[in-house]
Amino acid sequence: MRGTTIGRLVSAVLAAGLLAGCSSAAPVAAAPSPAGDGAYAHLTELQRITDAAGGTRHTPSPGYDAAVDHVAAVLRAAGWDVSTPTYQAEGQSGSGFRNVVAQTRGGDPAHVVMAGAHLDSVPEGPGINDNGSGVASLLQIAQQLGGSPDLPDTIRLAFWGSEEDELDGSAGYVRGLDQADREAIELYVNLDMVASPNGGYFVQGGTGEDRDETGPAGSAEVAQVLTDELTRVGAAPESDVFYGDSDYDAFVTAGIPSGGLHAGDEDDKSAAEAQKWGGQAREEYDPCYHQACDRIDNIDRTALGRFTDAVDASLRRFAASPTSL
Ligand SMILES: [Zn+2]
């Protein structure tokens, strides 16, 4: 059936729009992005520091202390307001251990957009995917944003100790917040293992059977932005639930809207996932999980770059929004 001239014109415009939409939604080439190269350089440096200090960043250890000093120095050099507040582990006495917390200058301190990654490793290895990858990603983002970005909200980044020991660093931090501090945190985004060598792209928040799995109200909105931004960089993410086993847990429990990102740990990749993301079905996402071989050659640089790009864009979107979730 022929349409009118106007109708054909409208059809042509629509078709052009659809075609433009198709081409921009097509998977991008899997070359590491500039941000991925930057995050990889941070990860290489973390490997060097960990090797030089005994091969692990378990809390406490010389490697953990060296990593705290290094991360704080990188963030200060990028212009961020940096502190290393101590926390008490469960049942611990004494002066406690250090987290690293950094925030931007000039944003509204009553509107804080937060992201975090654990800086410690298990005693058995240097923890380069788990979780040097999350740390490297946030350091790269910190450098890209600078310490005084032109955004209405404050962005705060945290690098947690003792994740591998009952999540004590993040738990101690959240326990130490008063009500006003807690209410100022609009949302929390957790990065834990974002460069698994046989991994995928998982987004936690807003999905599940109960509040422990979904997170509090607002978590679905956090997860949606993370999902959109991962999709935009060609990653085809999947929804996942919160398991209570990483640093988002204290934020979820405190009622702070939360999202989590990971590329998979010791579970096997399914056939459907291998079809979708590539890699080996029926093999672990990370065969070096919690082992000495979790080194710089144990990571997927493309995944590291995509997660870094997606988190950078997500934090800018969250911090640009004048309303809380
Ligand atoms: Zn971890």
Automatic annotation (TrEMBL):
Keywords: Signal. The keyword Endoplasmic reticulum does not apply. Residues 1-25 form the signal peptide. SUPFAM superfamilies: Zn-dependent exopeptidases. The keyword Phosphoprotein does not apply. Residues 99-311 form the Peptidase M28 domain. Coiled coil: none annotated. InterPro entries: M28_fam, Peptidase_M28. This is M20/M25/M40 family metallo-hydrolase. It comes from Pseudonocardia charpentierae. The lineage of its organism: Bacteria, Bacillati, Actinomycetota, Actinomycetes, Pseudonocardiales.
